[in-house]
Amino acid sequence: MLFRSLNRIAPGWSLNLGSAVTINQLLDLSYGTLIDSGNVVTVNGSISGTSSGTHISTGTGKIVMNALNTTNRALKTGSFTLGNLEIAAGSATVYDSISFTVAKDLTLTSGNFVTSPGTAYITTVQGNLFGGTGIASGPGKIRMTGTSKLVTGVTVDSLEIAQYSSIKAGANFNVNKGFLL
């Protein structure tokens, strides 16, 4: 299915996807819950949301931010949560404008994921952090939480391992600037 935008699921409601979906402009997670039901949600534009909006991944389901040589921004007015998130931006850049949570895995397949500045602006990853040719750069940081999580094949500028978390470092794991335990 192809959509120009997917705007605001009603507060307290859920949208369960029955197939893969492509959104060319805006995925708005301001309210309600988007359940991918194991399907891929490809976003060729931006993602915005608030703490009242959530994406839940089941099985191999995920959101793929696919910049296609343009610039995407993960914008928000509050703290939203995504299930599995893949940055597959080719040679383009995906900007994280403020902090949000990835409840499962963050995969940096290609492109540049630029994190926002300041200690209040953190991308929290509760699952694994996987890489390809993509990198996470910028003045913000990625915070890993949970136990027995894996970081492999990825390059990041700043990484924090949250208190009471245990992370396994795999092959080709690089931190360019800051590493905080």
Verbal overview:
By secondary structure, this protein is mainly beta. Helix content is 0%, strand content 56%. It contains no helices and 21 strands. The protein has strands at residues 2-6, 14-16, 21-29, 32-35, 40-43, 46-49, 53-56, 62-65, 72-74, 81-82, 85-96, 100-102, 106-114, 122-125, 129-131, 135-137, 141-144, 149-152, 155-161, 167-169, 174-180. The strands form two sheets. It has an 18-stranded parallel β-sheet that branches. Strands 2-4-7 form a three-stranded parallel β-sheet, with no helix packed on it.
What's the gist of this structure?
0% of the residues lie in helices and 56% in strands. The protein has 181 residues and is an all-beta fold.
Distance between the termini: 43 Å
Share in β-strands: over 45%
Number of strands: 21
Put simply, the count of helices is 0
For the sheet with most strands, the description reads:
18 strands, parallel
Structural class: mainly beta
Percent helix: under 10%
Residue stretches low in confidence (pLDDT < 50, at least 5 long) are none
Shape category: globular
> Which H/E pattern describes the elements?
EEEEEEEEEEEEEEEEEEEEE
Please give a handful of descriptors for the protein shown.
three-stranded parallel sheet; 18-stranded parallel sheet; mainly beta; 0% helix; 181 residues; single chain
Present the secondary structure layout:
Layout: E1 2-6, E2 14-16, E3 21-29, E4 32-35, E5 40-43, E6 46-49, E7 53-56, E8 62-65, E9 72-74, E10 81-82, E11 85-96, E12 100-102, E13 106-114, E14 122-125, E15 129-131, E16 135-137, E17 141-144, E18 149-152, E19 155-161, E20 167-169, E21 174-180
